[in-house]
Design a protein that fits this description.
By secondary structure, this protein is of the alpha+beta class. It folds into 2 domains: about 5-280, NADH Oxidase, CATH 3.40.109; about 320-510, NADH Oxidase, CATH 3.40.109. Helix content is about 30%, strand content about 20%. It is built from 17 helices and 22 strands. It has helices spanning about 5-10, 55-60, 75-80, 145-150, 165-170, 175-195, 210-215, 245-255, 275-280, 310-315, 330-340, 385-390, 420-425, 430-435, 445-450, 455-475, 485-495; strands spanning about 40, 45, 85-90, 95-100, 110-115, 125-130, 135-140, 150, 155-160, 200-205, 230-240, 245, 260, 260-265, 360-365, 375-380, 400, 410-415, 435-445, 480, 500-510, 520. Strands 2, 5, 6, 7, 9, 10, 11 and 13 form an 8-stranded antiparallel β-sheet that branches. Strands 17-18-16-15-19-21-20 form a 7-stranded antiparallel β-sheet, sandwiched between helices. A 3-stranded antiparallel β-sheet has the order 4-3-22, with helices on one face. Strand 5 and strand 6 form a beta hairpin. The longest helix has 22 residues, at about 175-195. The chain is globular and about 65 Å long.
Length: about 525
């Protein structure tokens, strides 16, 4: 009997002689509406107050968090403002589109967010949908004291879901992968924003997909009649160190409560992608007993990047580069600082949100880094993976330890690989004109045994990508995720055989070329509520 997860992964690979099945021609008139709205649901507006935060990005990346902010409506507004809200509007010849703090493949944004709260100053107990377009909460469900008693300490829950059609409209079969990348970016964005408030975000590993669907109201067929459904992804506990919650008690009460609003329709017509339906069913996550992550706490802090920016400013200035200049060089210390920020630390965002030891490592194409020979390098995000990866990769690789002692960075091949990097990244120049490009190599064998881990490998890649985005900005550079790459050609280059290790996401960092034709506008131009009051 076949493995549906492996079957999907193989079928959704891009290859030199053909790309993964897609729509062919984009039906622009049927492009999904970019915002999910619950029509008829009461609304609670958030203030725009993030500029009042004093947290600095350099402190957060070293695990130095401010004193916990009050868990109330104004500060929860900041949590969403710095993680999932709009960061700017772009305009070209009268056509405008929104950018957000959390990146997305094709800027299509399949990820939706729901807040589950015990009742806080300014917010009734219940379930709320976050509408980023207006920076408001839509009250989906109001509940009672029994619900609130499942929470202990100062915390809320945030549930993330995906609307696969938003990505499948453009990317076809491969869209399921991109939705998982985006979920990982959103997890990391929430973890960073929580840290800026002195809080911590933690993935609740034991929660099942059915639990998330019940808590967020995603299993309510009457609320999604004839519209695009949402797939439950992940549940996070957000708050200070006292926060705890009994998820199963909340699930028991959610079904008997009154719900408000019906979901809007995003497209008039849809194209079916049965492969996505099959892999979604195969990767369905049950309740389970989580294991300890055992993240290291003793690693030295990464050295400061080039610019010491307020966290709020950095989170909102993050952009995806569309082109690199092919000339900018990255200083050695900035490169090592960026790589060090990718190593998981138990007290540092976003890794303090992740419940597992790392399973994703980086194959780096170094092009223009001062003091480093161009070539292929490997960063082990868990040094314990060294023996297995040495067996899995080409036997002729050098495995020469490079960089600071605490950084598990190895030179495999000293050679100009710009053409190879561009080739495996679907011939895209950004992989060659950057300072460096990379492929994220994941321990895919995990998904062979627990199929729901398939999604989580992509989530971890998305979290790595979010760190790369922010670290690039802090170094005065820019990053961009690369979802289009030739999977098996990358594996062939590395020497990988079989399915135990797979490259799941590519990325590049370099000196950006700005598109001067575009006009940039503030994200909420009509809003003037810029204080915590």
């Amino acid at each position: 009997m076949g493995n549906p997860v492996r079957d999907y992964h193989q079928a959704s690979k891009h290859r030199l002689d053909r790309y993964a099945p897609g729509p062919g021609v984009l039906d622009w008139a049927n492009q999904p509406y970019p915002w999910r709205i619950y029509e008829g649901a009461p609304r609670l507006p958030f203030a725009l107050a993030a500029d009042a935060l004093e947290a600095r990005y350099n402190d957060l990346r070293c695990g130095v968090l401010p004193a916990p902010a009050p868990l109330d409506c104004p500060h929860l507004g900041i949590l969403f403002e710095l993680s999932l809200a709009l960061s700017a509007w772009k305009e070209y010849r009268g056509i405008g589109w929104a950018l957000r703090c959390n990146p997305s493949s094709g800027n299509l944004h399949p990820t939706e967010a729901y807040m589950i709260t015990p009742g806080l100053p300014g917010i009734e107990p219940g379930v709320y949908h976050y509408l980023s377009r207006d920076h408001v909460l839509e009250q989906r469900m109001a509940t009672h004291e029994e619900w609130s008693s499942a929470f202990r300490g100062n915390g809320i829950l945030v549930a993330l879901s995906s609307i696969y059609w938003r990505e499948a409209w453009k990317y076809g079969m491969r869209a399921y992968r991109y939705c998982q990348h985006d979920c990982g970016h959103a997890i990391a964005a929430l973890a960073y924003a929580a840290a800026a408030l002195g809080w911590q975000a933690q993935v609740i590993d034991g929660a099942a997909d059915d639990d998330i669907a019940r808590l967020a109201g995603l299993d309510r067929a009457t609320d999604f009649a004839l519209v695009e459904r949402e797939a439950p992804d992940v549940l996070l506990l957000v708050g200070d160190l006292t926060a705890a919650v009994e998820v199963e008690r909340l699930v028991e009460h959610a079904g008997g409560c009154a719900w408000h609003g019906g979901a809007n329709r995003l497209s008039d017509e849809h194209v079916a992608w049965p492969e996505i339906d099959r892999v979604r069913a195969a990767a369905h996550k049950p309740r389970h007993r989580p294991a300890a992550a055992n993240l290291p706490a003793g690693l030295p802090n990464p050295v400061a990047p080039g610019f010491d920016l307020p966290a709020a400013a950095l989170f909102r200035q993050r952009r995806s580069a569309v082109a690199f200049d092919g000339m900018t060089r990255m200083p050695t210390q900035a490169f090592f600082a960026l790589l060090a920020a990718l190593l998981p630390r138990a007290n540092t965002p976003p890794w303090n949100a992740w419940p597992r030891a790392p399973e994703v490592h980086l194959a780096l194409f170094v092009h223009r880094i001062d003091g480093l020979a161009p070539g292929l390098y490997l960063l082990l995000r868990d040094p314990a993976a060294l023996p297995e990866l040495q067996r899995a990769l080409r036997p002729e690789w050098l495995w020469e330890k490079f960089g600071p002692p605490h950084l598990p960075l190895y030179l495999l091949l000293p050679k100009d690989l710009r053409q190879a990097a561009q080739l495996v990244s679907c011939h895209q120049e950004i992989a060659a004109t950057s300072c460096f490009a990379l492929g994220m190599v994941a321990h895919f064998a995990l998904a062979e045994h627990k199929r729901w881990r398939y999604r989580e490998l992509f989530w971890e890649c998305g979290m790595v990508g979010q760190v790369l985005y922010l670290e690039a900005e802090a170094a005065g550079l820019r990053g961009t995720g690369i979802g289009c790459f030739f999977d098996d050609e990358m594996h062939e280059l590395l020497g990988l055989r079989g399915h135990d290790w797979q490259s799941l996401y590519h990325f590049a960092v370099g000196g950006p070329v700005e598109d001067v034709r575009l006009t940039t506008l503030p994200p909420y131009l009509a809003r003037r509520d810029l204080s915590l009051g």
